[in-house]
Amino acid sequence: QVQLQESGPGLVNSSQTLSLTCTVFGGSITTNSYYWSWIRQPPGKGLEWIGYIRSGGSIGYKPSLKSRTSISRDTSKNQFTLQLSSVTPEDTAVYYCARVGSFQNLITTTKGGDDYWGQGTQVTVSS
Prior knowledge:
The protein has 127 residues and is mainly beta. It has one helix at residues 103-107; strands spanning 3-7, 11-13, 18-25, 35-41, 48-54, 59-61, 69-74, 79-84, 93-100, 116-117, 121-126.
């Protein structure tokens, strides 16, 4: 059973960079063709995909967030990370990391039968 666990600061100041790490257990982030993804949910709003790094190493970002987002990985630790720069209070959200099987599931934030999500971590951006 694959498990994902998010970690990082719960409070970030405006204009600074939000950094989160996802540690994966029970499966390698370099095998198969999964989208190792970051997704968030602001308070009172729906889920929003942020970006992904594929098992083969290719990376993609949601266009509206691309200029502020960086996703990388450390294969020796089976981790992948999210950095979101120049944050504002509008970036306050629960942030999830996930293993997603298809791009369609990712952009529609639909949890498929073979997808695994972490339990999420609250990040608050102070003004």
